[in-house]
Design goal:
This protein has 226 residues and is mostly beta strands. The chain has a single domain, classed as Mitochondrial biogenesis AIM24 (Double-stranded beta-helix), CATH 3.60.160.10. It is built from four helices and 18 strands. The strands form three sheets. Strands 3, 5, 6, 8, 9, 10, 11, 12, 13, 15 and 18 form an eleven-stranded antiparallel β-sheet that branches. Strands 1-2-7-4 form a four-stranded antiparallel β-sheet, with no helix packed on it. A three-stranded antiparallel β-sheet has the order 14-17-16. About 7% of the residues have low confidence.
Length: 226
């Protein structure tokens, strides 16, 4: 499978497949495909697995696209302004992504729900508690809100983030929630809690979470006359 990402701030990944190659995606992300492709929709591993994906923000069903001839194309479009981030999995690396991160992947990539067991993260993590886990072999394409910044954490190095700005991280990165200190910081600062990431491992930070984009737009929406 070959791919090319096009479209700037409203990106689309175009995958070129040879006969027998398969791509899968969540329903609704396919923008176009050539006539030599066929589609089948199922839960991708049973109802329980589909329900697990639904808890992490995706759909119960996945679409599977198979090339019946050589040199077929299929395009998957992001749902919001931002980036499409390609990651290659080789059977030894695991990526943890934000809710709704999954866009499309090769057949050999496994998508599952990822629960953070920490009590603090579970109660206060918000966007950072229920995540997505990507394993297996092949390319996976993730949706990133806004721009993406890559950060390499050294062993023991810590990084504090607003939970919504975590796009993805390697499984080796530790994840927990840290309470903001100081009454004024809580009342007038960035909120009650930070996500605390601890190295080693790579972290991808997104600059404009969809929730913050929605907050920025709300004041400009027409007011009800009621």
């Amino acid at each position: 499978m070959e791919y090319e990402i096009r479209g700037g701030s409203f990106p689309l990944v175009v995958c070129k497949l040879q006969k027998g190659e398969i791509m899968k995606n969540e329903t609704g992300a396919m923008a176009y495909m050539t006539s030599g492709m066929t589609m089948e929709t199922n839960t991708g591993g049973g109802l329980l697995k589909g329900l697990g994906r639904a808890l992490s923000g995706d759909t119960i069903f996945l679409n599977f696209f198979t090339a019946e001839e050589d040199n077929q194309e299929i395009g998957f479009a992001a749902r919001t302004p931002g980036k499409i981030m390609p990651i290659r999995l080789d059977g030894t690396n695991t990526i943890i992504g934000q809710k709704n991160a999954f866009l499309a992947a090769e057949e050999g990539v496994d998508l599952d729900i990822y629960f953070k067991k920490s009590l603090g993260a579970g109660i206060f993590g918000g966007e950072g508690f229920i995540l997505q886990k990507f394993t297996g072999n092949g390319m996976v394409f993730l949706e990133i809100d806004g721009e993406v910044i890559e950060y390499n954490l050294q062993p023991g190095e810590k990084l504090l983030l607003d939970p919504g700005h975590i796009a993805a991280m390697e499984e080796s990165v530790g994840f927990d929630i840290e309470r903001v200190k100081g009454a004024k910081n809580i009342l007038f600062g960035e909120g009650l809690f930070f996500s605390k990431l601890t190295g080693p491992g790579k972290v991808w930070i997104q600059t404009m979470p969809l929730s913050k984009l929605a907050e920025a737009i709300i004041p400009y929406l027409p007011k009800s006359n009621e």
